[in-house]
Amino acid sequence: MSTPYRIHCLVPDLPTPEAVLPFLEEMHENRWYSNFGPLVKRFEAELTAFLGRENGAEGCHVATFSSATTAMELALKAMKLPAGANVLVPAVTFPATALVAMNAGLTPVLADVDLESWELTPDIARAALAQGEYAAVIPVAAFGRPVDPAPWVAFQKETGVPVILDVAAALGQQDIHKDLTYCFSLHATKPFGVGEGGLLVSSDEAMITLSRSLSNFGFQGPAGVVLEAGTNAKFPEYFASVGLVQIARWYEVSERRQAVLDKYLTGLKKAGNSIVLQQGTGDFIPAVFPIYMPGKAEKLVARMDAAGIQTRRWYLPPLYDHPALGHLPYADKTSDMPFAGCEKLRTGLVGLPFHAFLSDEDIKEICDIVAGVYV
Ligand SMILES: Cc1ncc(COP(=O)(O)O)c(C=O)c1O
């Protein structure tokens, strides 16, 4: 990796070519490379079992796509929401959360996030519904922090507004409830990375079947006719090959990440109460590792840069400051500070290096720099 940094923020932990080779040989033997081939079918079946075992998924269907972005976009289309309808999204998230709604012909409406979880919560969504009409809500598992499904199941029941969870970075960590729809990413930078890819998980078989058909131009049934205009967002056999190995090595990948997290939690004690971690950190392994040091983000980034350590300001700026998204409506129309939470977070959120290849010395050096920012 040729960059000016000694310590990188994110290093993918993917299978070796040797481990993938038997699957590639099988693919070559089959002469079947895309279009819902045998390896994709096996990967989907193994993922269904994995999600049942690890995350309590019962009665759910799993479909693969070319990315989380295409998966979410096609799920929104398959949900048949009224054209142009409002969809509530947090303003601090990866831009894809809003882009998928726009690409599906809907209007993303930006909501504030909670200062403890750094997420769009059911309470924020309820306040938004009191001021406007929404066809769907897309809460986000921010930085891979798993979303508690129960309050969203209750929200959906009480309001009748469907909830589709953008849990892109939380595969393996995110509990599955059959009443909600989940979208995961398999991008190389995710803890469960295969290269590129996305998953939809839902008990709504008709929605999954239509989304899958839309990923194949909208062909439906044996006649091979386009019933509804789709696109090409299929998941190829090559990535399914990597995915089948990744499932088998999930425990070792997770153990390495847990060990790094534990060392950080010990090392950061030196910084005392001055740094804030995302609510619940330690009960889950995050995908990336932002810490919150109110007012100190720029100073911390400069010090890390000077030491050759890469940091990332994930999810910033907030969506309303992106030139292509600045026109989007706000959920909170009454307050003169509709994004008080986002604005506070932007002064202090900094993603520290977080991957399996950090040494004890790397982590100590990073924690010492963090602790020194207040000195
Ligand atoms: C919250 C969130 N949503 C969506 C995506 C998009 O995922 P993909 O790259 O698989 O399209 C990402 C990717 O980083 C993400 O972090």
UniProtKB/TrEMBL annotation:
Segments forming a coiled coil: none
Modified residues (N6-(pyridoxal phosphate)lysine): 190
InterPro entries per the UniProt record, alphabetical: DegT/StrS_aminotransferase (IPR000653), PyrdxlP-dep_Trfase (IPR015424), PyrdxlP-dep_Trfase_major (IPR015421)
UniProt KW Repressor keyword: no
Keywords recorded for this protein, A-Z: Pyridoxal phosphate
Record-level GO BP terms: polysaccharide biosynthetic process
Active-site residues, Swiss-Prot/TrEMBL: 190
Keyword Acetylation: no
Family, similarity comment: Belongs to the DegT/DnrJ/EryC1 family.
Protein name, as recorded: dTDP-4-amino-4,6-dideoxygalactose transaminase
Organism: Kordiimonas lacus
